[in-house]
Amino acid sequence: MKSLALKLYYILVVSALFSFAGNAQYKPETMPDGFVYVKDLIPNLRTDLRYYSSNNFVGEPIDGYERPKCILTREAAVALKKVQEEFEKLGFGLLIFDAYRPQRAVNHFIRWSKDSTDIKMKEEFYPNIDKKDLFKEGYIAEKSGHSRGSTVDLTIVSLKTGHILDLGGPYDFFDKRSWTEYTNITKNQRAIRLMLKRRMEKHGFVSYEKEWWHFTLKNEPYPDTYFDFPVE
User: Would you list the domain boundaries of the chain?
Assistant: First the structure.
């Protein structure tokens, strides 16, 4: 009798598991509640999401970027909205190159860096450095702040013409020319870099010394968590 009861219990448990697997729409990699689509908060925001396309230092779409969507933590998006509002008063706005970045995208960068034969984008993005040294030099990280959801890569654009302002160097150009305090550029380029930096800092962001376009919310909500849900 006891043996029969155990058999019936086993059958019920297995049946329940198969039923759950067949009917549940469980998605462990969906966007968490603390994240938002930035354009929902900043309708006039411009984007050029490079890792969704082949226009990047790898030369191909990056893992995890399934749709051209700009995602940040709500706190970062709210702070960024204040920066956008200041620039709009001057006839300018922000253009985003990258925001939240899944860990699988960073893993893609790591795999790429180990392939010494793939240098098709070297002349455009890293002409003066060996690709294997991009991590050592601090241009790419095995754990990126972008994966915590409160880091953003951006520039300034004219709202009237759509023209991107000249900050003295292109996005993701891995060279000293991209350093925030680099001085061998024109006074106007230098002034625009400082204008972007000061307004971002005013609203709670911290700049990165080696990339003029890179900013992280100082009081980010997930300072020790690296997410991997896809951008979709």
Answer: 30-217
**Does the pLDDT at position 8 exceed 80?**
no
Q: Active-site positions? A: 211
Cβ(120)–Cβ(126) below 8 Å:
no
Q: What average pLDDT does the chain have?
A: 90
Residue 171: what pLDDT? 98
DSSP characters over 25-55: ---TTSPPTTEEEHHHH-TT-EE--GGGSS-
Question: Which tokens is 224 given?
Answer: 């020790």
CA angle 113, 207, 203 (to 5 degrees): 140
The whole-model pTM stands at 0.86
Q: Which long-range contacts (CB under 8 A, 24 or more apart) does 158-166 make?
A: 158/91, 158/92, 158/93, 159/44, 159/88, 159/91, 159/92, 159/93, 160/91, 162/46, 164/95, 165/92, 165/192, 166/192
CATH number of 30-217: 3.30.1380.10
DSSP 8-state symbol, 65: B
Q: Distance between alpha carbon 91 and the CA centroid of its chain, in Å? A: 26
- CA–CA dist 31, 74 (Å, integer): 12
Residue 138 near residue 179, CB atoms below 8 Å: no
Please tell me the distance from the alpha carbon of residue 67 to that of residue 27, in angstroms, as a whole number: 17
Nearest alpha carbon to residue 47 among 144, 121, 157, 189: 157
Question: Tens digit of pLDDT for each residue in 66-77?
Answer: 999 999 999 999
